[in-house]
Amino acid sequence: xxxxxxxxxxxxxxxxxxxxxxxxxxxxxxxxxxxxxxxxxxxxxxxxxxxxxxxxxxxxxxxxxxxxxxxxxxxxxxxxxxxxxxxxxxxxxxxxxxxxxxxxxxxxxxxxxxxxxxxxxxxxxxxxxxxxxxxxxxxxxxxxxxxxxxxxxxxxxxxxxxxxxxxxxxxxxxxxxxxxxxxxxxxxxxxxxxxxxxxxxxxxxxxxxxxxxxxxxxxxxxxxxxxxxxxxxxxxxxxxxxxxxxxxxxxxxxxxxxxxxxxxxxxxxxxxxxxxxxxxxxxxxxxxxxxxxxxxxxxxxxxxxxxxxxxxxxxxxxxxxxxxxxxxxxxxxxxxxx
Length: 338
Description:
Layout: E1 2-7, H1 9-21, E2 26-32, E3 38-44, H2 49-73, E4 84-87, E5 92-96, E6 103-107, H3 111-132, E7 137-139, E8 142-144, E9 150-155, E10 161-167, E11 178-183, H4 189-214, E12 221-223, E13 234-238, E14 242-245, H5 250-257, H6 261-268, E15 279-286, E16 290-295, E17 298-299, H7 301-309, E18 319-330, H8 332-337
Antiparallel strand pairs: 1-3, 2-3, 4-5, 5-6, 7-8, 8-9, 9-10, 10-11, 12-13, 13-18, 14-18, 15-16, 15-18, 16-17
Helix pairs in contact: 3-4, 6-7
């Protein structure tokens, strides 16, 4: 057996649970360090060693992220929550505590890597956009496209996830900003940026470009409010449904045969403000029960719960589906039909 990690008893218990979830069984040996403090060592079989190391590294990175996040949300002087940030971004941020009045700085070790990932992502997104609709260029404001369109990016706390905003005409900003977030995967920042760009282009960008440039079905599908597969009562544009992960096509076939937009429209109709249209709806599901619906970049709890309750197959190896829908306006034809 080989050693994967040495941690205190509380953290080793969490790591063991993480390993068990991924079907790796280990052995914990307890001892003491040079100061007499208890230390626990996790060992795994030789055949599981490489996978266990990868899992441990990911788990530890997440633990660090949580510690950084707590440092950002609690004053280190008095321990009270929600210190006020008075300077943002960069390798450090300056905060002042609203409880004790103390000022302090918090380092952001991910700032440089986030900036690098965002820079690489802009180039990857520019490339995919130009394959769909030429003339996208990188400017100081973001990716500028034909007709005043603009794509902006904002990094998140994760190095493989990025928030993306689409503005159809920078001269006339939308009442409701159209946001989406997408995560890439791969062994390098370039691979993560490239896969994120491809996922976004085939789903979210397709709906955006259809609305901005085509409106004839060139990039995505139009649904009228009376369409049995559409968003009931509304004119909507839906992207293709993109599967990724495993090769099992049962989840995709279920989705094709069981349209989810009618079910989602029932629980989302009260959240759609026609005065602030269009609204963006992202649908993501797969794995052993992950179901997430976002409205304008924020999770819609009722719609996510409704999606989770549908009888879609939980398949292994894990497969995920992603698609994006723009809700444009109430459909006059469907209203007249009623």
